[in-house]
Design goal:
Elements lengths: L3 E3 L5 E3 H25 L29 H5 L14 H19 L6 H18 L7 H22 L2 H24 L14 H9 L3 H26 L4 H12 L2 H19 L1
Antiparallel strand pairs: 1-2
Helix pairs in contact: 1-3, 1-4, 3-4, 4-5, 4-7, 5-6, 6-7, 7-10, 8-9, 8-10
Length: 275
Amino acid sequence: MTYGLVISTSRSIPLSVGFGIAAIVGLLVGSFLNVVVYRVPRGLSVSKPRSFCPTCDRQLSWWENVPLVSWIALRGRCRTCHEPISIRYPLVEGGTAAIFILITWARHGSLMTIPYCLLAATIISILLIDAGELRSPLLVAAVGTAFGDIALVAVSAIGRNWSDLIGAQVGLLVGILAFSVLRRADPECRRPEGFGRGALIPAGCWLGGLGPVPGGIGVGVLVGVYLLDMMANRIFGGSARPEVATATTLRHVFGLPMILATALATMAGLIAYAQ
């Protein structure tokens, strides 16, 4: 294990410094993810206008946009209309920072931390959007995974670590295939709430790059959580009528069970890799 954050082929800084960098970058990225989660599914630009209160539409000052600090300073309320600001905002910021720190630790502070943070941000965005009332556009998965994969190619080329790169591409193809299969299972998108299936694309790239064993553990967790939900549904909420059973199956293939399974699978694979 390398106890330093590699910044070139011959120099490194202490891993504790890497944790600090990951925390700061994670808070900033988490703040941006809040913008993505709110605006993208509504067809709004993520760059214009500046951040605003969704209740009174007032544009926020710079000091009202400081991750975590602003929410605490404002006591969770808008300075103008005094309406509550969802606790989701600081949770996403703090949670993203925590995940970035975990990635830094699990990837031993190597440059591979960068593409994995990009993939993590993509997965977080998709799962948060799909956990709400709106569905995540496929563009979020496509763009986020593309950035993560490009960074992975660049880092693999620098370190000449082709095994991670090949594994990630195989995992990406598997993720795309799984996404396509689940999409064909319900092409009309009958469920009003989120599906979580778009996260399978970056998650496949994520797990594939970890290697066969950690990746296999992650896939096992994903399938296991899904099957447990299916079994629980049959035991406690099943129906003898075929048409209802089919609708119930579709309802549990997608949505919160898939979101939970994907989140647990990616973390399980990452932790297994770090051991």
